[in-house]
Amino acid sequence: MEGLVACLNSLLSPDPQARRGGENALAQGSQQPGLGVALLEVSQNPSLPTGLRQLAAVILKKHLKEHWTFESGAFREPPIGEEEKAALRARLPRGLADPERKLRTAAGMAVAAVARWDCPQDWPELMPGLLSVVAQKPSPEHVDGTIRCIAMFVDELGEDQILEMAPGLLHEMAPLLSPGSGADAALVRRVLSILRSVVGAMQSVTGTHAAGVKALLTEVLAEWAPLLAAVLAPREVGCPPGSGPDLEGLEEWGTGGGIRLQVPELWAAQREALGILTVLVSSFGRLSAPVLTPVLGAVWHRFSAGLPQYVAAVVEGEADAGFGDPAPADGAEAEDGERAVGLEGLLAQTMELILCVVGNARFRGLIAPHLPQLLGLAVGYAQMTAEQEERWTDCPNQYVADEEDDMSSLRASCEMLVDEVFLAFEEAAAPALSRAVGEALARSGTARASGRPGWWREREAALLLVGSAADTLLGLGPRAFDLAGLLSGPVVEDLAPGSPPFLRGRALWLAGRLAAAAPRAARPGLLRAAAAGLEDPGAPVRAGACRALAQLCARVAPGEAADAAEAGFRGLAALLAAASAQSGDEDSTHLALGAAAALARAAPAAAAAWEPALAPALLAAWERGVGDPLLAPDALEALAALAAVPAALPALQRRALPTLGALLRDPGAHPPLVLDGALDLVALLLRPSGEAAAREVHAALSPPVLALALRHDDAEVLASACQYFRALLQVGGGAALSWQAEGLEGSLAPHLAQALVRLLDPELEERAAAGVGPLMLELLRCAEAELAPHLPRLLAALGGRLVRAETSLLVQGLVTVLATLVHTRPDSLLACLAGTTLGSGQPALHACLQKWVGRQIEMRTPYDIRLTTTALGALLLRPGADLDAVAVRGRRLDVEGGILTRARAAQRAERWSSVPLRAKIVQLLVDAHIEATAQDLHRGGATDDDDDDEEWEEGSGSGSDDAGGRPYNGLEDLLDLEGADDFGEGQLDAVEAERRRKDPLSQLDLPAHIRGVLGQYAAASPDGLRAAAAEMSPMQQQTLQQILM
User: Fold this and answer.
1) What is the 3-state secondary structure (H, E, C) of 56-87?
2) Most distant CA pair in the chain: distance in Å?
3) What is the 3-state secondary structure (H, E, C) of 163-198?
4) Do 724 and 679 touch, CB atoms closer than 8 A?
5) pTM, to two decimals
6) Nearest CA to 313 among 235, 237, 261, 374?
7) In DSSP terms, which residues pair with 916 in a beta bridge?
8) Could you read off the pLDDT of 656-696 as tens digits, one per residue?
9) With contact defined as beta carbons under 8 Å apart, do 539 and 399 qualify?
10) To pair with 793 at 20 to 30 A between CA atoms, which of 88, 222, 604, 866?
């Protein structure tokens, strides 16, 4: 041992050379057996200096972590031998009784490091030995060390171990929390942390252990509930008996003289107790409800009576808030080496418990009589703290960011509490909130009259909580909460320029949140206040003004925003110009852009007048954020709103074209994200153009965009290039193909055909071809004759891309091109496909039709469903040997005769029947008839949805599945009634949406059309119809029979 002691002393030497020598010696010793035992002997030798012993204990813990087992992520060779392991296991627990706290802690960490791997299999005597110490309590130090040790590894124990040791451990620990035990706050904290770990582990216990958990919890609750109440009860009494709100059981703690409720040295233990209660309420409500009412009474008492001290210490930031010694801060290092718990951390855990109580129907009755008091407390605890005020004043952008994203502060928890209260109590919560807000406004008025500097904080918090519940309150109507009165009274009062900045900003924010409740006569005044706030020097006011302007402008009638428009645009232009001059202001820029978009839509005449100031600021914001996936869409939305004003568009285009042209003509100097953003902006400016403006855009930008389409490799850039040319054709029609542009020879049609063929290259990403289908459709609509000479090579490329396509978006886009050609040029289409052989050697006609019918179910928009379904009907009725020769997949055969599990699917290859194309088309038409009929029933208010779903699932059997396709999933999958807009009409540009609305196909009675097609086919080919019916499910056969009746 002497050599080891000398080595350790050298590690403590101020001489660097001596320390290096000690480190080398120790590294060599770690490769030899016996180092662990030697370190343990040094650490447990009371005759050696404490610092030396502590160093030995720390090195021992590291040695055990690295050499105990191969399973450890920190393992290093060589492993400790079994004989040495046995010696260590036998002697390690002795260190838990050391008089020195730091040595007890180090010993506990060493025991825990081994217990994680060896207990109980290789160390069965550990837990009984630790439990005996807790039971016999040989010395306070030994008990403290043992509890420390258990707390370190109890989380590592399995269900069996916890259920085995928990009854004895918890029973023996309970006296440590009883009055007169002499346990200090640190020991109480650790005892409760063990209980919290045990109760938390029980949450996941299921199966055979569930009965044991129930029995154990019943026993634990009976013994520990009074102890938890005692931990949470005030050590001194702070309020006279009966003062403040009360819960059943509260009277037990409401007696005594004047007291101090918050005792900082107990906060860590109390947070553990609150965490235990949170688990019990949320996961074991049935078992815990009968015994936890008195404990929750103590929590309620602390929460209500502790508000004044919270306001003094945290909200107002008083140095002496009645805590005696300086109160600890959350996360600071405490004397016992643990992390301290501050008042805000304690209250955050309290709020989490209250949220669970409100959300649990078994406990909700405790809260119901006290809703006004609870919401009044929420207002108090939601007050802006002195630290928040200082931080947000110094960093306005942080204020905006926290307003959007804060989920962890006590202030945010109060907002969540209001939401939870409305979810739990619905309309009954509104008058309670109204009362709480009214009382808070009255108190703040009194405080203001008395000259109290922070009078505005409670008022601001009250407005915050009303705004957090705005959507619910607006839905309940004016009888539940007088929102109009709040807007016309306190909110208007707080909008005055002399109001404190955070209060004025909150009032503006609330005016926006409650815009739907604002009387029409009040809206112009609110808009003027919002516009004026944009020029206020206070960042909170400007942020609130942007939010208010954006939401109020969405509600006003034409002309109502005119009075506020000039001041609004002036302020927004200044805000955006200032933001472009500095970095790190993205959140504030986001608000300003949203307000600019809304105001431009509400006051187009003023927007046109302010274009010289507004457009440069918007373009600068776009250019600065073009690579930002959050900021770029905001800038585009604001520019789109300005571009939608005809009087502003020409000047906006002239400003933007030079910058956009420079970007697009030098693609190698810019990342793809910038190029993609530039193309998005070009298309945005092009769509509302007239022919003259579109010619200017074409002359300046079509050549570089075409070059991108022909040479660039980024899929998003290529898809956006398609969007540009589609927008050009939407504005200029077929005539746009002959417009002149420097660098383009002749018509644009052959250049576009070349680009489309390149984009259909299967070696490119699928996203690159996403815009090909819509662009080809646009060409077919407006320039079919110019496209005709290029159609054969386009269809050959389309077929090669379609058969390898996987994504629904690409399949749908390409299939709609084929469907359109079936209606307009069926002879050319079929001849081109029949005469083309793909690289696989398969005729393009066969491959394309196989893909089409296999993925027909993925057509999502009502228009595309009608387009492709009617095209299939036309193919069914079209005679021809080429179509007769096409065979496609029918039903899946490897799933017949039993359920196809994942294991079976992995062991067998897919097998499908082969059916004639016409038989498959008949099946798809029957499915479409079922879908369309069910959709009509849904729109008509049918209530027998569950029966329909069940019948559909039983009868499904069309086998509409193909390589890369998605499995058929019954009525819900076919209709996609909830998500139709996600795939379809809601994503269309305005031109396409209007075109589809006017197309007679949109008004087609699809079921009647299908009945007509099938009736004609039955008359022309009864054998073909019988062959198709033989492949159908019973439900499809029944539907076909009904159609033909």
Assistant:
1) HHHHHHHHHHHHCCCCCCCCCCCCCCHHHHHH
2) 109
3) HHHHHHHHHHHHHHHCCCCCCCHHHHHHHHHHHHHH
4) yes
5) 0.78
6) 261
7) 887
8) 999 999 999 999 999 999 999 999 999 999 999 889 999 99
9) yes
10) 866
